[in-house]
Amino acid sequence: MADEIFRNDGYQSEFEAHIVSVKGDEVVLDCTAFYPGGGGQVCDTGAINGCRVTEVFYRGDEIVHRVPEPKGMDVGARVWCSVDWDRRYDLMMGHTGEHLLFSSLKRQCEDLAITKIYISPESKYVIVNHDLEWPQIAKALEFANCAIRDNHAVTKSIMDRDDPDLEKVRIKKERIPEGEEISVVAIGDIDLSACSGVHVMETAELEMITVTRKVSAGKDGVTIEFEVGHKAKVAANANAMLAMEIVDSIGCKASDSPKAVANSRKEAEASRKALKEATRVILDSIPAEQLGGIPVQVCVVPGGDRNIMTEHAEAVKSSGGVAAYISAGETLSAMVASGDKRVDCKKVLSDVLAQFGGRGGGKPDFAQGGAPDASKAAEMAEAFRKAVAGALS
To answer: Using 50, 70 and 90 to split pLDDT, how confident is the model at 90?
Structure first.
């Protein structure tokens, strides 16, 4: 089993080692500072004797280094190794930042639990079991950034399974095999968490932490994305400028913007409901005409709701009739549904839309598409009527 340098010193990025084995692109060393990943943190990359290390992982008790071009590597040879330091340090900051962020969020919601963690140079997030309001996240960030300014020590210790103090630690015992040591990371007196990852030594190294986004993770809960260090400063500034741009467009005070947006959403929802009802009323009020012995309904619905139009068209089709609906907004959108095999909706739609510089597609019994000129709605309706009548004659 290799000496795992990273467990005792996360800051050592260069070291010498002996090659234990080489199998294809897989190299095993007698000691390594390359972190093989774990606890949601991705593995290190770097070089062995100048040859690129692209992946590091455990295989049983061995730590395997994937080297796509292992030139000049012989078993027993002494080699010089280097971890990509900037990348490693970013991961160390991210992993420590995750501990601090979750601990701070949990102070706002005692029932909060972690579902998943992911720390990479490109993306850092924690998935928690349920949602938090933005004011809660703001308070958590205030606490976390105060902890960064107060510069708490980040220390690691080993605890036994029967240690009574283990009750104070955030830990999932079932994930730790019997007999394996329990590594505990402490951030001052703020947080105690079981973790074998690589961390910074002091919270001040994080510089700053900010949440950049929260989004549903489905059954897993809510994803909270974050950044630390310089990336956090850049993200916070960009989001602040974006927020001010939004505030200016709304035309209100920054402090009033959440309420203004909420009111706008209510108004928009009311408008959507009114549009749906108006679309339904229009379609119900226009009688079908008999063409070729079946009912045919062709009409224009200004700004019509697509879902209601589709629902209505499907009902006409189910009854054996034909429906051709046009929604007029900034452009024209059209749909054709037919319960009579004489009317090939795909062909009818394509032929009519081609006359107006548009296009679409679908199936013989239902097709939809659009055209650019909204002023041609009435002309398009008449073209659909003639096309359907021709197919039924």
So the answer is: very high
